[in-house]
Amino acid sequence: MTRLQGTGVVSGIAIGELYYYEKEAAGEHKRAFSGAAEEEHRFNEAVSQLDIELIALKDAALASVGSQGVSLFEAYRMILQDLLFLEEVHTLIYRDSMCAEDAVLEAGRSLAATLLPMEDPYLKQRAEDVKAVAQRLFEKLVGDHGVETLAQAQGILAAQNLTPGEMMHITKENISAIVLENAAENSHIAILAGLMDIPMIVGVRPELDPKMNGLTAVADAERGALILSPTEEILSQMEIRREQLAETKKLLQQYTDRETITQDGKRVRIEANISGLVDLDGALQYNVDGVGLFRTEFLFLGRKEAPSEEQQYRIYRKVAERMGSRPVVIRVMDLGADKMPDYLKTAEEENPAMGLRGIRFCLEHKGLLRAQLSAILRAAVYGRISILLPMVVSLSEVLQVRELLEDVKRQLTVQGEPCRMVPVGVMIETPAAALISDTLAQNVDFFSIGTNDLTQYTTSMDRQNAKLKKYMNPYHPAVFRLIRMTVDNARKENIPVSICGELAADTTLCPYFLSIGVTALSVSPTRVLPLRKTICELRVDDFTDRNDQWKEYFS
Ligand code: PEP
Ligand code: MG
After folding, report:
1. In terms of domains, do 487 and 356 share one?
2. What is the pTM of this model?
3. Which of 17, 32, 290, 373 is most buried as measured by Cβ atoms within 10 A of its Cβ?
4. Pairing, β 200-205 against β 2-10
5. Nearest protein Cα to ligand 1, atom 6
6. Cβ of 307 below 6 Å from ligand 1
7. Which residues does the annotation mark as catalytic?
8. Which pLDDT value is given to residue 355?
9. Ligand 2 mean position to 152 CA, how many Å?
10. Of the residues 85, 118, 142, which one is the last residue of a structural domain?
């Protein structure tokens, strides 16, 4: 028996024969440079071929996983049109006399390298996308390698990595689980596997080996383990766990299209936290009541320059349109500290977590803020958009943004550009904001409590520092007092108050949050179903704010 360990990214347990998928090696490629014009022509041909392939894959995704799978291939098509990428290839061909094959790989590597140093998993994923597109272009240039074998594969599929295109050759009927060496936790492959409901483990070590082909295997995505040639005893234990898990999963799936209503008929709002168009798919899949937090700073990261107003407008408009009548809360760029692109970095800060960040950064970069506000007001014509301000500590910050909004609106109107004023809310994620939430509530349209930063700043413990884990109390009474104070002040002014930090997804806390008057919980799409299930099993009586019941959270 051999055990390989990785990370389970789509839950489930599968038992079966291992099928090792070995991609046909592209072969030692040694093509000579045949002149810049010819190489560019070959590159352009490969781009057109890949674009056609991606359109076909988009249709296949629509058929197999619904509209949720489509934007993945759209994102790939956008990389194919990315000016930075295209210019880099052009330069490598013309300046460095590289053949098209080398140029696409090199351009992919260099663009991905600008994204990889970022800590954020979202940007790491963008880097993976760029590399996947470059690799696929390379394959087009050296001659395509068939993926037909995948369509015939059965059992537990193991491979170094898979592309979304290859995923489209797989069906849940044939493949009971996927185990990969090189995919990342938030990779598109993982998202696709989630949509197709195929258990998946990524990053397994030690590495996979073609000799494993044909072995009996257990893929335990709950524990991220791949067990090869299991003993009879392990096998029967796993069979029992597989049954139990399938039951739980089936139970959760029943909540996909349901409304979130308690046993006695109270409707509760669950919204989604998203970082871009890709996450929207998951949100729509689980039928959320709106986007409670769109972290737009991710649109600014991992690039060489800020996205233009026009680029932002297109994205905000698309989110608004896809959400239809459901509200979309767009948080203005929460840049600074760990989320600071190189092109905006000025002087090093001694203590960036308390430095020029969030709304302070926005107010220092009025040009960028104006462009973002303008994009938002224009997109607001197409849906129910509102604006959320991060890291607020004073009323004056809110008033400055309101003034700017009026000015931007005036300017757009003069230009004859369709636009609409939007409600303005603040993140309550600093102790200062919570403590003046009575004043803030009189001047804004809604609150959204960011428990991640509220906990960090209230306890003075860096949320990124793993070494502090043993000192951290996610249920610190000080944080809960500030939450309570904020919600009370919101209720006094009759404005909605949601929770969008990680605590919103804590199913043990939702009766408490609902009891004190929180109006919505905004969570990442994968956390929607367990939360909905919990709420649907509650009665309003369970919400009652009995301090006794919640004592453990206040001590
Ligand atoms: C928070 O601080 O709780 C929050 C939702 O914002 P972020 O996690 O993006 O800082
Ligand atoms: Mg925050």
Report:
1. yes
2. 0.70
3. 373
4. antiparallel
5. 450
6. no
7. 188, 500
8. 92
9. 47
10. 142
